[in-house]
Amino acid sequence: MLINEGAMQRNRRIRRLGQVGLRLNPIFAYFFLWAPILVLVLFSFNSSRSVASFTGFTLKWYGNILNNMMGAESAFSTELMLNAFRNSLFVGTVATAISTVLGTMIALAMARGRFPGKGLIDGLLFLPVVIPEITQAISLAIFFKVAFDWFALMSGERVFPGFHTIIAAHVTFNISYVAIVVRARLANMNPRLEEAANDLGANPWRAFWRVTFPLILPGVISGALLAFTLSLDDFVITFFTSGVGTTTLPVFVYGLLKLTVTPEVNAISTIMMVLSTLLIGISLALQGRSASRL
Amino acid sequence: MTRRIRRLQQNGFFLAMPTIAWLFIFFVLPLLIVLVVSFMSRGRGGVAIMPLTLQHYERTFGVFFIILRRSIGLAGLTTIICLLVGYPLAFFISTRRRRLVQQITLFLVILPFWTNFLIRTYAWRILLGEQGTINGLLLSLGMINEPLSMLNTQFAVLVGLVYGFLPFLVLPIFASVERFNFRYVDAAQDLGANDARAFLRVVLPLTMPGVLAGCALVFIPSVGAFVTPDLLGGTKGLMIGNLINKQFGGSGNMPLGSALSIVMMAVVMLSLLIYVMAHRRERGA
User: Which residues of A touch B47 (CB under 8 A)?
Assistant: First the structure.
């Protein structure tokens, strides 16, 4: 067998290059992913206001946040931040409740029902996940404006954007995510169990609550937790649908981040980072537990 | 018996009705209104009035074409960079032999992702700023004499977009590399293929579904990005998402903003179509 010496050598060179590249790539990638976060946390403890060099450890920026000492000209106050946080929790809770019910209903209908137009409904559920947030945000902003103008014309009463518009917007983008999660759960479930319940004389309503629902409950809970997380995290769509006095935490934080880099903002960011990591960690742990129970 | 099954199936439709109605009112109808408004004239305060006009589309493809092109260009470049960084990274993770190491390396990609997008983007303002960390480091090492201006440039936007969406690409590729059987590479080499050929003819085609899904998941939100260029781009890194946002402020122009978002939607739909077609071809092949 004739072996081409030149080609072999070239192949060895490519292989060596590939090996070096594959060694360096993860180092570079993990550094890239983690450096910004570590720098942010580090400088929230820096004793000077600089983010160019670390001069010493302090907790005073965290103290400033809690004691409302960020300067008179600042848009920040501890009370405003806590208020925004409360608004976020309220919006998240209501939007999660509605979207979990609606998302579970359509997931059940798509998995068990047999009716025309399913492909179209699939598309309708898929689109809110893929279209850019800004498109959804401005379409809702225009929609609410048109609807409220029209309402004012008909009834003479003006309605303004507020919690109701934010919640309606959040429910709309949450439904798809809940439906995806619950459908995945339903796909793993044996439909014979429902048939058995029906054969044993349970009506569909009873069969659902006694058989289907307990089995899909872990899926429903994961869907709800996902919806709640997305709701708490959303900025773009909330920004375009919120009104006066209904600022959520991300919208409030955006107002701070837009200004200059200050150690207090770094401290707030660090707190938020710790909180959201905790929240997601807890929800994943719950999901793991409820999944392993079945 | 058959009647009862039929009734259950119809119940399925009634069960779907409330959700369909909700999505119709708050998703389909608003998009239709945007479409209509994009053809209307600008009234006082930026609102939409009659008569119908095409002028906003003319401006979108006229004076604003440069920004449209920039958005698509930056999104494309973001996708390519994510692919160059993310593909080998997904390989690295899925080829870890020990399960625990694999889980940790994957977790290290996902964990930064749990942080709010705004804050992850803001972190780059600290790094890239005139008096930021990178400039501070380079100055103190004597590698530069005066600070580089990196913030408020297209470069900063590119970095922010890659940072924001890299995990979207790593995860689907990881899923398809994990299913990949490495004996195929041995087989290709036994049959005389060199490394490059084995990669291009065997590894790449078999992991293509993950590559395609990852590219779509990075490209689409990058085209429509608003937060990243807003916090990192300044005027030099303005993207179509910022332009749309501006049309809804004080001296805005709602019909123009609508036309811009319809064009952006068209770009997104087109890239989805390309994705679906490529995916079908992959599966057929």
Answer: 145
Beta bridge partners of A162: none
pLDDT digits 0-9 by tens, A70-107:
654 556 677 787 888 899 999 999 999 999 999 999 98
B 37-56: CB under 8 A from A: 37, 47
Which of B19, B79, B95 has the alpha carbon at shortest distance from B212?
B79
Cα gap A166→A169, rounded to integer Å: 5
How many Cα atoms within 13 Å fall on the side-chain side of residue A102? 24
What is the amino acid identity at position B190?
D
Q: Between B77 and A277, where is the model more confident?
A: B77
- Is A106:B15 a contact under the CB 8 Å cutoff? yes
Average pLDDT, chain B: 85
ipTM of model: 0.84
Distance CA A238, CA A96 (A): 15
Work out the average pLDDT over B1-18: 67
Percent of chain A having pLDDT more than 90?
17
Across A68-72, A266-270, B22-26, the highest mean pLDDT is recorded for B22-26
**CA of B114: which chain A residue's CA is closest?**
A277
The helix/strand/coil state of A46 is: strand
The string of DSSP codes covering B64-75 is THHHHHHHHHHH
Residue with tokens 């006066």: A244
CATH number of B64-284: 1.10.3720.10
Give the minimum alpha-carbon distance from A78 to chain B in angstroms, rounded to a whole number: 19
Distance between B130 CA and the closest CA of chain A, angstroms: 9
User: Does A125 reach chain B within 8 Å, measured CB to CB?
Assistant: yes
How many CB atoms are closer than 10 A to CB A112? 18
Write the burial class of residue B171 (CB in 10 Å: 0-12 exposed, 13-18 middle, 19+ buried).
Answer: buried
Closest CA to A99 of A165, A168, A175, A166: A175
Is the Cβ pair A29, B261 closer than 8 Å?
A: no
pLDDT tens digit string along B255-276?
888 999 999 999 998 988 888 8
pLDDT at B166: 92
Question: What pTM did the predictor assign?
Answer: 0.86
A95 CA: distance to closest CA in chain B (Å): 13
Q: Tell me how many residue pairs between chain A and chain B have CB atoms under 8 A apart.
A: 246
Give the pLDDT confidence of B173-212 residue by residue, as tens digits: 888 888 777 788 788 878 877 777 777 888 888 888 888 8
Q: Does A41 touch chain B (CB under 8 A)?
A: no
Across the interface, of B16, B30, B86, the residue whose CB is closest to A105 is B16
Short-list B17, B12, B18, CA closest to A191: B12
Hey, are the CB atoms on A26 and B195 less than 8 Å from each other?
no
The answer to whether residues A235 and B227 touch, using CB atoms and an 8 Å cutoff, is: yes
In order of their start, the domains of chain A are: 63-293 (1.10.3720.10)
Subunit contact B129:A53, Cβ cutoff 8 A: no
Closest CA relative to residue B172, chosen from B82, B108, B90? B90
DSSP state letter for B172: H
The helix/strand/coil state of B181 is: coil
CA distance to partner chain A, nearest, from residue B285 (Å): 24
Is A273–B119 a contact, with Cβ atoms under 8 angstroms apart? yes
